[in-house]
Amino acid sequence: MPEEVTIQRAASALRTALGGKAMTRFDSPRLVGPVPQAGRTVEHVESHGRHLEIEWDNGMILHTHLRRGGSWHVYRQGENWRRPYDQMRVSIENDNWVAVCFNAHDVETYRRPDKRRHPGSGRLGPDLTASDADLGLVVNLLLSYEDATARVSEVLLDQRVMVGIGNVYRCEVLWVTGLSPFAPVGELTEPDAVRIVNTAASLVRAQLHRGGAGSHEGRRLAVYGRNGQKCPRCPGSIDGARTGQPRRMLYWCPSCQSHLDPRVLADPDDTPVMDPHPAAQRFLADLPWNRHPA
Fold first, then answer.
1. Alpha helices (H) in the chain, listed in sequence order
2. Rounded CA gap, 264 and 187, in Å?
3. Phi, psi at residue 142, to the nearest 5°?
4. Which of 30, 81, 110, 204 is most buried, taking the most CB atoms under 10 A from its CB?
């Protein structure tokens, strides 16, 4: 079997075992770069020839160059490894699975390029995981955001506004508050901003109290990773798309997350143009002139 096919199959197995799940442990004795933190969720696994990359919800990427002798294995928790421990180069665990990379030539981590992380972009906002975080300051930073046309879903990932939310919980925060992820941040009212910040702080702190690692496994996620499934709150279906720069997976319910939706703001006339059944709404949303720009 060609080596590239073997790596592609390994990537597929890693997606099944790790994708959409919070990491409970990370080990890498020869890692070059920052260490991925427990509690972060694996969002993407991709292979390119003999290279395999794993991306977490905070933009951290693990790159492994396998060359001829390297390989990735997937084991259930407690299962014996098929190779000796001293050949391990990376071990990634969640509640049910252990993914192990053996004999990789290169093992490094880096963050996906994001101009907002550059020191020239300004200081970091308050860390929502801290009990003494100034939530009032976060509210003010939201309401005074420099680009009033920026989507609120992108602003929530801007670490100049707040730190600690990540991609999983930005989706969950927007769902809990019923806010459209495409809402312009300049349209937020003070009550909107207060609700967003309080919800975000509550979710990320509850995550830590449940043990940090794998913490959201203890609660059912409403929208994240549930593309095409029924919304827990309404008869609608969860949607998903890659948006923003860098392009990150966004999940939301178009039916009940309508607050400050740009299409609603642009058309104050509430007269329905078609049967309001969720299937009809999805049909309308997919029309070329109604699609959200990427």
1. 3-18, 135-143, 152-155, 166-177, 190-209, 262-266, 278-285
2. 12
3. -65, -50
4. 204
Q: Where exactly are the structural domains of the chain?
A: 3-111, 118-290
What's the one-letter identity of residue 73? Answer: H
Domain 3-111 listed as CATH 3.20.190.10: yes
Look up residue 144 and give its two tokens: 């005074």
pLDDT averaged per 10 residues in sequence order, the chain, 294 residues: 75 91 91 88 87 88 89 94 94 94 92 56 79 91 91 90 87 94 94 94 80 47 89 92 80 92 63 50 55 53
CA distance 45 to 41: 12
Q: Measure CA 58 to chain center.
A: 7
Whole-number pLDDT of residue 265: 58
Q: Letter for the amino acid at 33? A: G
Half-sphere exposure of 218 (CA within 13 A, CB side): 13
Q: At a CB cut-off of 8 Å and minimum separation 6, what does 10 contact?
A: 47, 52, 71, 72, 73, 74
